[in-house]
Amino acid sequence: MPSTSSTGPVAGRRGGGPYPYGGAARAVPPGVDVALLLLRAGVGVIMFAHGTQKLFGWFDGSGLDATGQFLSGSGYPAGRAMAVVTGLAETLGGVGLALGLLTPLAAAAVLGVMINAMAVKWGGGFFAPDGIEYEILLALAAVALALTGPGRYAVDRLLPLPALPGGRPAAGPAALALGAVAAVIILLIRS
């Protein structure tokens, strides 16, 4: 059985070293760090694309004015301002997830947007195109990434961020709570 220390690598594991959020190396099944990278990159790129559709009209997107009109029609006050907030949350949250940069906050931004997206689409059933299955999947992926951390291949690894025992991000649950509370506040001002 490999030995571990709080500061050094796991014996028998090539590379070892500290994990993101200041956690020590730990024995993980092969491929977990690559799997987290793939999940982060996939969700991050999808969110970046959706955000830039709203902000800049990229990728055949509607841009700020049309997104603002849609949000106003969906009951949000100041539709264009909400379009900016939504677009920035998706774009910056997507970039953060893809890079593994401030992962808990990036995941919280994605969660907040997905909660509002589910509220807008509520009543359309479960399955796409009118249902909420896609939004649920993205929200759950964001929650999972906030709770597990970004894995070894992340910019967060270079930052002095606090950690729980085992290297899990201490900020994950708090960031998710912040994202959920912000989403609920936005929903409460929606008519």
In short:
The chain has 191 residues and is mostly helical. The protein has six helices and no strands.
Order of helices and strands: HHHHHH
Structural class per helix/strand content? mainly alpha
Mean model confidence by pLDDT: 87
Number of domains: 1
Give the amount of beta strand, in percent: under 5%
Radius of gyration: 18 Å
The count of β-strands is 0
Question: Which regions contain 5 or more consecutive residues with pLDDT less than 50?
Answer: 1-18
Count of helix runs: 6
Structural description of this entry:
By secondary structure, this protein is mainly α. It has one domain. The protein is 58% helix and 0% strand. It has helices at residues 32-56, 63-73, 79-99, 103-121, 133-148, 171-189. The model is unreliable at 1-18 (pLDDT under 50).
Which secondary structure elements does this structure contain, and how are they paired or packed?
Elements: H1 32-56, H2 63-73, H3 79-99, H4 103-121, H5 133-148, H6 171-189
Please tag this protein with its features.
191 residues; mainly alpha; 6 helices
